Each structure stands twice: as structure tokens, then as C-alpha cells.
């Protein structure tokens, strides 16, 4: 007589079981923006001349790693807003901040003067999350279906911008606005719409999608006597 457990095991199809787990485990890496780190720390090794090129940055010699590799002060001070856009955007990657190497993360700071703006741009390798620390910011992004998502952000508000989507930020307050950014890649990249310094954000958006009169009004509206507006346009 064949044992019951033997019959149950024989009735299960091992190939299907193995195929399922193969698909699951090989798909995990698909969702990772950067490669997984293979050690606890890997601060970027700075070399005068790079002779070997690969995807990522080389690690420092373990015995040379120190606490200062994991500290950075590049975002301590506000950037200059004395320019045509009245804004400053600083992104700190693993190149400037050695301790970020292999951690799939980077950070940034943006300062926008009154009536200033961050022109339409995108980060091809990362999602961006912004946290407003000062002022009032109008932030928005355009998805692949030509929908425009925009909202007013006050101090303490958080806004997320999906990977690779065009986005912009405007200062709609009466003082300098500041927000901090976090990216889920140690090298998020930066791309922009070809434009002249005198071109407005609306002009840039018009290159990508047609805007209705109401959408233009919402972008240019500076009346803050009403609660912050959350709008989704299609």
C-alpha cells in the first residue's frame, strides 16, 4: 500500500512550483532602482584618474572608511536665487556624499525666491519625494497620459513625484520657499525641456500638452485667501 503522504507529494507538480518561485525571485530585482549592496558600507573611493568604468562607483578600502564619509553639509546653506529663474537646486549624490554609495538613495535642497520657479524637468532614474520647510510651493507633474497633477504645498507638507515624469515647482508665497528632496537612487539624473531662460512654466507645459484656460488660471493664481487647491486635470 502506498503511503498517503507519498500520493499527495506525487500529485503535486514540481515543475510548476519551481517555475513560480523562479519568476518571483528573478522579478525582485526588476523593482530595484539601484543594485543591492553586498556589504554594510561602501563609501565612494575618490580617484584622480578613472581607468576602469562600470555601473556604479568604486568603494574605499575598508580600513580607510571613517565617520566623516557618512556626513555631508552641502545642504546646510541656502543656494543663490540671484538668476533668471530666481531659484537654486542642489542634488547631492554618491559622488559628493561618499556614504551614499550602494545605498540607492540621494538627497537635495531647493530654494525658490519670490515669484521664482524650478523649470520643467525630470529625473530618469528615480522617484522624488519633497518636504517643504519654508514658504508656499506650487508643485506639479505630468504623467504619461498627459494628465497634470498639481497642488499647493505648505510647511510640513510632503509631495511625491513618480520616476521619470516631468515636474515643476513655483514659489507662490511672499517669502523664499525651501524644500528638501529624497531620491530612491544614488544617481537620479536630470533632464529638461529645451527652453529659453525667459520661457515660463506654462510655455514649457504647452510644448507637451494643450492647456485649457482654467488650467492656466490655476497655475498662475496667487490668491492664498482660500485653502490649498488639489487638482487633477485630464
From TrEMBL:
<feature type="domain" description="Cupin type-1">
    <location>
        <begin position="82"/>
        <end position="203"/>
    </location>
</feature>
<feature type="binding site">
    <location>
        <position position="121"/>
    </location>
    <ligand>
        <name>Mn(2+)</name>
    </ligand>
</feature>
<keyword id="KW-0325">Glycoprotein</keyword>
<keyword id="KW-0464">Manganese</keyword>
<keyword id="KW-0479">Metal-binding</keyword>
<dbReference type="InterPro" id="IPR014710">
    <property type="entry name" value="RmlC-like_jellyroll"/>
</dbReference>
<dbReference type="InterPro" id="IPR011051">
    <property type="entry name" value="RmlC_Cupin_sf"/>
</dbReference>
<dbReference type="Pfam" id="PF00190">
    <property type="entry name" value="Cupin_1"/>
</dbReference>
<dbReference type="InterPro" id="IPR001929">
    <property type="entry name" value="Germin"/>
</dbReference>
<feature type="disulfide bond">
    <location>
        <begin position="42"/>
        <end position="59"/>
    </location>
</feature>
<keyword id="KW-1015">Disulfide bond</keyword>
<keyword id="KW-1133">Transmembrane helix</keyword>
<feature type="transmembrane region" description="Helical">
    <location>
        <begin position="12"/>
        <end position="33"/>
    </location>
</feature>
<feature type="binding site">
    <location>
        <position position="128"/>
    </location>
    <ligand>
        <name>Mn(2+)</name>
    </ligand>
</feature>
<dbReference type="InterPro" id="IPR019780">
    <property type="entry name" value="Germin_Mn-BS"/>
</dbReference>
<keyword id="KW-0052">Apoplast</keyword>
<keyword id="KW-0472">Membrane</keyword>
<protein>
    <recommendedName>
        <fullName>Germin-like protein</fullName>
    </recommendedName>
</protein>
<keyword id="KW-0964">Secreted</keyword>
<dbReference type="GO" id="GO:0030145">
    <property type="term" value="F:manganese ion binding"/>
</dbReference>
<dbReference type="InterPro" id="IPR006045">
    <property type="entry name" value="Cupin_1"/>
</dbReference>
<feature type="binding site">
    <location>
        <position position="167"/>
    </location>
    <ligand>
        <name>Mn(2+)</name>
    </ligand>
</feature>
<dbReference type="GO" id="GO:0048046">
    <property type="term" value="C:apoplast"/>
</dbReference>
<feature type="binding site">
    <location>
        <position position="123"/>
    </location>
    <ligand>
        <name>oxalate</name>
    </ligand>
</feature>
<keyword id="KW-0812">Transmembrane</keyword>
<feature type="binding site">
    <location>
        <position position="123"/>
    </location>
    <ligand>
        <name>Mn(2+)</name>
    </ligand>
</feature>
<feature type="binding site">
    <location>
        <position position="128"/>
    </location>
    <ligand>
        <name>oxalate</name>
    </ligand>
</feature>
<comment type="similarity">
    <text>Belongs to the germin family.</text>
</comment>
